[in-house]
């Protein structure tokens, strides 16, 4: 991240210096589209983050400068509901302010410059990183004493109410609660969590970015969520204890097969299996059984591709290559519709896999994928 540029740009535009906050993107080992179904996820924060210098300016106006954008990179907006800025990027900041205020937090205007190295649209949660940076930073600067759970919920509510994505809590939680060297096993219903030291000796965790940009706001993500809610509601008629699909079994789903659409049936089947896969991975990790971890990752990919239908040709292609190269586990990561695969690969197979993936991807799609080695890092903090 580029702190010197943030600092010099802030001084140039606002003639002063503020406090600097940073919040990371995330990976997720397994547990995809389970968060809004009340299930478990297994994310970790990474060494790529959004970073902002922020200083209260004593007015009612926020003045924000997005350092990484070449055009339309400045926004000034008030803090009332009707002041919503037109730029999408500024809505993340505006939404965080509004959600803080709805919870009784007293904030005023501020100046900010921000920049980041979380690739956009790659399934690594750049938007959650941005929300968490501002939620964390404003909480500190205005001495609001909002707890970390609520900070994560402020980011999530920003997505729901100002960005049109009915996301779960995983991304914001990982960005706020991340811990170097540990994954987080999170129960998305109770928000109970456990740090899980993750150091797979002899393996590497690597992301390959197809560079197909996903946009969850175009409605497909919300459609998946609606399918799950319909299926859960159908099951609940027979089993009142089923609050979310997390509580359902495949037998319960079979029993309502004729009451729901074939599409909702497929979506729900994926989620019920995925909840189980997270449990399997948890157990396997405790025994150091990375072969099982990897097999479940392939299982997730298959489900996301064929049942949940959130993969794409490029992701499926990388997944096939991983299998052919003997990679232990591989799957699409995050919401899907593009972005990255996450790969658990034995060190001795790493070089051959990367070489093969780059060459064959390029000859099929005309460009190479991008590679990121994963470093599991700390969550939101002041620099
Ligand atoms: C996106 C959402 C998360 C989660 C994942 C899929 O990243 O923001 O809440 O649903 O997709 O697991």
Can you characterise this structure?
This protein has 383 residues and is of the alpha+beta class. It has 2 domains: 3-198, Ribosomal Protein S5, domain 2; 203-373, GHMP kinase, C-terminal domain (Alpha-Beta Plaits). The chain has 11 helices and 13 strands. It has helices spanning 3-14, 88-102, 126-141, 148-163, 170-177, 220-238, 250-255, 262-286, 290-306, 313-324, 347-365, and strands at residues 19-28, 40-41, 43-56, 62-66, 74-77, 110-116, 182-187, 193-197, 203-209, 329-332, 340-346, 370-373, 381-382. It has a 6-stranded mixed sheet with strand order 5-4-6-3-1-13, sandwiched between helices. Strand 7 (182-187) and strand 8 form a beta hairpin. Helix 2 (88-102) packs across helix 3. The longest helix has 25 residues, at 262-286. The radius of gyration is 21 Å and the shape is globular. The structure holds alpha-D-galactopyranose. Alpha-D-galactopyranose (GLA) binds next to helix 5.
> Which structural category do the helix and sheet elements fall into?
alpha+beta
Uncertain spans: none
Order of strands, main sheet, comes to: 5-4-6-3-1-13
Ligand inventory reads: alpha-D-galactopyranose
Share in β-strands: 15-25%
The N- to C-terminal Cα distance equals 12 Å
Q: What's the count of strands?
A: 13
Mean pLDDT: 96
How many structural domains are formed by the residues? 2
Shape: globular
